[in-house]
């Protein structure tokens, strides 16, 4: 069931760290971010954009659902690019991530915490799957549940 929830988010991106002032016209904000990343995003590429509530009231996250997975891949390919909200008049880092279902968000948080405790080198998300790796040359392990986390890390 969790995999089905995650699959429904395949064409989604979550953009974190935007100031509230950027929330006025979300589609324009997505176009601006695309320009800064060197990706052309047209209105026909976007299915829907909406804000997501956060604990920190000074910034907000948005979820963008693209018509195709291609734009998602292009944006995720630019994740290492230093993107700051200075393009929107305030300087804060902006993060572009895959949109995870709540169960996988919790699992990713637990995985990251456990990775730090055990001094593992990598934890990442790829295609909606949570992956860990102990060292550069060690095998990649896919985590699908808390049981996997307890058993693996």
Automatic annotation (TrEMBL):
Residues covered by the FP protein C-terminal domain: 102-150
Pfam families named in the record: Baculo_FP_2nd
Protein name: FP protein C-terminal domain-containing protein
Higher taxonomy: Eukaryota, Metazoa, Ecdysozoa, Arthropoda, Chelicerata
